[in-house]
């Protein structure tokens, strides 16, 4: 991978430090400026007003600042460094009013997007952000929200697919700069006695940092497919799956401890030996709901070689896609039980394991390798198969996974998307008839092979071959359906910067309707971090039988719902904070 060390010009507006000093003498009182000035003092001047990512191009299209934004418009790292930058365009906008500050993502230099009458509006971006550096900042924000009724959001990397890290008129707690990371080979959670190898990471640590840290410390960490998603933020608190999950478990399965400020203003330690209810809730109940996590400690696994088998070809062809997916459906139970994880797309399958040697891997994957050899023999354009061994996880990750999820293929961000998800249980693979029905449903849900068809990704990332004894102690709150999930499938739709409200509604509807083909043959279960914005029966789909207990815990720590987010546990769906959703 080539990482270019481009650093964005500092686009954040200057902190309100100057005003804050003046406000020292001004009592907290009636006008909004005063209340924010007082808050700024309380948080050490680290309150600021963010600019939308594309703002420089609305100020001056020929400035060097605009050129930098155009160049990095589709770059995930640049967006996550920027307080006002989000991965998916629509969560910067107010979809309901059309207020936005977007470039044309297909051609960021397209002058139409910034030309009159288009203006640069904050949309859903919070007008005020706190650059969180410690528990006192979060406690101040909870008190502020209680006194002023200004709603809060927690923004870490801004990768969320459901808009849970932005909100018009909110105060944002930005956890991005909590970058500490350390390793203790004999970590003992506070109040517990057993020692585990544990990595303690601040909420702002991203996967590229966690994986580099793991490499340097000769350990393996379970993470997702994308370099810039947060390691202990929304990913972890919502479940967290990756190619190593079949053997090493979901992210939540490896959480040893959280340090979290709960909305009652208390900085707490949650683990298997204290605040167990909160520990359970933070292990799958979803981000932005039970508290603001400042750091988490995650169970590390030993470093180990990674076996990889990749099959791919070039041109879209529905019959070939169907043959590939059918072959996977016929073999996947055996593969998953042997410890393989991976991804399949219309023209690609990638399987990964640390459990087998290179020779064992080739034997185990013989049917897939033979299938690829057949495609090559037929002269299928671009057909190839790779059977590889990497010494550790990082070089594998850097070869296949870095850009916008790697598996998503797109490699770019900054456009607007609708996603939809379903967990597919073991029972869907029982008989030949079941497998045929599943593959037909997946083909229907992928809409292949039109060039603009939504991208279907089959993620073979359920914790299928996990040995519970290897994991962190205590309960998790993800839907129990994850324990039986062989596939997590997603389909994705997208739209342009100038789509009309009715176009956007249409894409959401269409994407969701595609997944109805899979919904019809599987129980209600979806991955909350990659789900439909309008997930039907979401309480059951995301949490199954755990939902009532999670609501009780939510009401214990946050009876006033100072934290609230879209389809989150105990949400208040009538809240004005959802005014920008369609
Ligand atoms: C390109 C791409 C690839 C992905 N690949 C994977 C994958 O392989 N596996 C997988 O499981 N998921 C994957 N995801 C989904 C990912 O888990 C979610 O987008 C998740 O919400 C990201 O969390 P974040 O903290 O990075 O982002 P944010 O958008 O900043 O936050 C997401 C949610 O978590 C809350 N939150 C964040 N930090 C905290 C905190 N410190 N305390 C409390 N609440 C917090 C926010 O309020 C919000 O509700 C991917 C997403 C993208 C865009
Ligand atoms: C825009 O930026 C260019 C390059 O810095 C500069 O020459 C020009 O004067 C600017 N235009 C305005 C209206 O400020
Ligand atoms: C790294 O960890 C592996 C697995 O525990 C071990 O076999 C190896 O000796 C370690 N390497 C170094 C350099 O410590
Ligand atoms: C959106 O903008 C593009 C050019 O940037 C244009 O071709 C297209 O017609 C526009 N679509 C709508 C719905 O206005």
Q: In terms of structural class, how would the helical and strand content be classed?
A: alpha+beta
Rough shape?
globular
- CATH architectural group of the largest domain: 3-Layer(aba) Sandwich
Which residue ranges are poorly predicted, with pLDDT under 50 across at least 5 consecutive positions? 1-30, 404-410
Task: Provide structural commentary.
The chain is α+β, with helices and mostly antiparallel strands and 582 residues long. The chain folds into three domains: 34-174, 2-Layer Sandwich (Uridine Diphospho-n-acetylenolpyruvylglucosamine Reductase, domain 2); 181-303 and 544-578, Uridine Diphospho-n-acetylenolpyruvylglucosamine Reductase, domain 3; 306-543, Vanillyl-alcohol Oxidase, Chain A, domain 3 (3-Layer(aba) Sandwich), CATH 3.40.462. The chain is 30% helix and 19% strand. It contains 18 helices and 18 strands. The strands form four sheets. It has a seven-stranded antiparallel β-sheet with strand order 15-12-14-13-17-18-16. A five-stranded antiparallel β-sheet has the order 5-6-10-8-9. Strand 5 (181-188) and strand 6 form a beta hairpin. Helix 15 packs antiparallel against helix 16 (501-519). The longest helix is centred in the middle third of the chain and has 20 residues, at 318-337. The chain is globular. The two termini are 38 Å apart. The site of one 2-acetamido-2-deoxy-beta-D-glucopyranose (NAG) has 3 residues, from loops. One 2-acetamido-2-deoxy-beta-D-glucopyranose binds at residues 104, 110, 112, 496, 498, 500.
């Amino acid at each position: 991978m080539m990482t270019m060390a481009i650093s964005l010009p500092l686009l954040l507006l200057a902190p309100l430090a100057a005003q804050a000093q003046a406000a020292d003498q001004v009592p907290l009182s009636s006008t909004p400026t005063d209340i924010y000035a007082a808050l700024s003092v309380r948080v050490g001047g680290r309150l600021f007003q963010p600019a939308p990512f594309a703002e420089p191009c609305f100020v001056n299209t020929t400035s060097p600042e605009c050129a930098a934004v155009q160049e990095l418009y589709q770059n995930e790292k640049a967006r996550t460094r920027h307080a006002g930058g989000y991965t998916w365009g629509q969560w910067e906008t107010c979809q309901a009013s059309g207020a936005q500050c977007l470039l044309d993502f297909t051609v960021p230099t397209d002058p139409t997007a910034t030309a009159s009458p288009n203006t640069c509006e904050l949309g859903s971006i919070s007008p005020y952000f706190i650059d969180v550096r410690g528990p006192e900042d979060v406690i101040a924000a909870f008190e502020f929200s209680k006194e002023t009724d200004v709603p809060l959001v927690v923004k870490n990397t801004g990768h969320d697919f459901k808009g849970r890290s932005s909100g018009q008129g909110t105060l944002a707690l930005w956890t991005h700069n909590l970058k500490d990371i350390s390793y203790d080979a004999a970590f003992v959670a506070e109040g517990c006695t057993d020692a585990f190898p544990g990595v303690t990471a601040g909420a702002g640590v991203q996967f590229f940092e966690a994986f580099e840290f793991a490499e340097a410390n000769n350990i393996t960490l379970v993470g997702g497919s994308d370099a810039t998603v947060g390691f202990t933020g929304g990913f972890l608190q919502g479940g967290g799956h990756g190619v190593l999950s079949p053997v090493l478990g979901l992210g939540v399965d490896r959480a040893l401890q959280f340090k979290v400020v709960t909305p009652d203003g208390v900085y707490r330690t949650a683990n298997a030996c204290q605040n167990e209810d909160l520990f359970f809730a933070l292990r799958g109940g979803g981000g932005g709901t039970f508290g603001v996590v400042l750091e988490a400690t995650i169970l590390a696994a030993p470093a180990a070689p990674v076996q990889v088998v990749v099959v791919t070809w070039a041109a879209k062809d529905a019959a070939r896609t169907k043959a590939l997916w059918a072959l996977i459906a016929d073999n996947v139970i055996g593969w998953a039980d042997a410890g393989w994880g991976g991804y399949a797309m219309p023209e690609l399958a990638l399987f990964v394991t640390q459990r087998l040697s290179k020779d064992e891997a080739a034997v185990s994957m013989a049917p897939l390798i033979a299938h690829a050899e057949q495609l090559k023999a037929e002269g299928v354009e671009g057909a190839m198969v790779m059977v590889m061994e990497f010494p550790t996880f990082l070089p594998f990750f850097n070869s296949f996974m870095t850009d916008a999820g790697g598996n998503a293929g797109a490699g770019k961000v900054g456009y607007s998307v609708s996603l939809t998800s379903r967990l597919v249980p073991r029972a869907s693979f029982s008989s030949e008839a079941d497998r045929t029905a599943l593959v037909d449903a997946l083909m229907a849900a992928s809409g292949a092979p039109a060039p603009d068809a939504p991208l279907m990704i089959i993620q073979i990332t359920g914790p299928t071959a996990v040995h519970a004894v290897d994991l962190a102690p205590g309960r998790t709150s993800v839907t129990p359906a994850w324990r039986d999930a062989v596939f997590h499938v997603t389909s994705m739709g997208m739209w342009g910067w100038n789509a009309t409200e009715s176009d956007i509604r249409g894409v959401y509807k269409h994407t969701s309707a595609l997944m109805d083909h899979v919904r019809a043959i599987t129980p209600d279960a979806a991955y909350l971090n990659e789900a439909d914005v309008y997930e039907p029966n979401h309480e059951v789909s995301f949490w199954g039988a755990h939902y009532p207990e999670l609501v009780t815990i939510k009401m214990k720590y946050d009876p006033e719902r100072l934290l609230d987010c879209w389809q989150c546990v105990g949400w208040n769906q009538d809240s004005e904070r959802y005014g920008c959703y369609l």
